[in-house]
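Design review, sub-item: ligand-bound model
Attendees: FS, YL, KQ
YL presented the inputs for the protoporphyrin IX containing FE complex:
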Amino acid sequence: VPGPTPLDMARAFRSVRADPLSFLVKVREQHGDTVSFPVPGAPALLVTDPLDVKRVLQTSARTWSKETVQYAALARVTGPGLLASAEPSWIEHRRVAAPAFHHERLAAVGDQVRAAARDSIEERLRDVPDGAVVDVAALTHTIGLDAVGRALFSADLSGQAQDLLAATSSSADIVVRLGRSILPTAEWAPSRTNLRLRSARRRLDRGAAEIIAQRRERHRRTGTSGHGDDLLGLMLDSGMDDRGIRDELVTMVIAGHETVAAALAWTLMLLAEHPGEQDRVRTELSAHPGAVSLVGHREQLPWTRAVVDEALRLYPPAWAVSRRAREPDVLAGREVPAGTLAIISPWLVHRRADLWPDPLAFRPERFTDGPVRAGYLPFGQGPRLCIGREFALGEMVVVLAELLRDHRLETPPGWTRPAPQAHAAVHPRGGMPLVVRRGAA
Ligand code: HEM
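KQ shared the predicted structure:
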């Protein structure tokens, strides 16, 4: 299988660390659909053909596990939570969590997500002069955390928000570092990364313990039969121990707020760059003056939903996922041995010109005809598909509705797009400064 040589990799070392997305785009251009990286031991393959992607994530998903550096690094923060767990027992936690993401439950928490969006918009934009440049990435971050807290844990995270935000973003930073390091770092070593990790973990533990204790206390006071039908209540009622609940809580905060926040920041940028498309969102919203629900928006607001889908194609926050073969399998027509590492990058698949004509153009029309085909995987595929998919899509539509009903976004003079930074999610380097004008006209 073609791919860069060890010398190429040594030369590219710095640029891979600084900008892995450009590196991936370049190696695919140079070497084709399947690229082999020169690592000792079993092969490491970058897989971009949709059939191979499907094979790894769906067809042979039992063969391909999450026993990879990427998920081992994440597990050092989240423990064996839903996202990082490589064990088949992950399914038991998924079963407990699933009802918190079902259609009826999402329909019921729309109010909380709308309130999270409205409060943050009001707080951040209240004192900002009309037409000022605002970092909308900071706004979407606050909304993302608040929405997860209110909808999944019925907790107002605003008191703990600053600390939790700082702790999650610094742990995400550490996870990225650990994931990229070539040699596994000994967990006990007093290295800077390990010390930062320990401190971030302590803060996450404290935040989680506080949320769990508050819920237990409320349950004791009110004497209700169950702990509630949000995610936290489901976990407490399932008899899961506090450690397991902590792991899922931290997982959901990490997986559920940076991703949505980054996706929304890119969506707002694309709409600021495309005023016609932005106006069409507003036209659609004015035909539906009522509250926008977390579910059913594909029918109610098809254009707004298509904008979200297209933004997730161009800027998929989860830019790479990885799997390890437990047994031999076949990829790109060749047998690959047990131990093979498969790296799948939605960023690359979404930019294939054979699947997406004029792939870099922002064209929501691609999605107005309904659900999409192969070659689109912002939320992954198969049994490990994102459990928060519907929640995230609903939240994005709700936030767009709350913001664009009475604000217009424009690009500032001398505009250049912020560089995409492949962090835990792909986020805009240096924030997303956009001009915010009041009024819809
Ligand atoms: C899994 C992306 C929002 C929780 C995943 C995966 C992707 C993804 C690609 C699969 C990873 C893999 O196969 O290796 C996204 C994107 C989001 C988003 C792009 C927003 C735009 C959320 C939200 C939550 C969440 C809002 C929860 C509140 C999870 C969890 C998993 C997961 C727990 C692991 C599921 C399992 O393995 O059973 N996400 N996600 N995500 N996501 Fe999301």
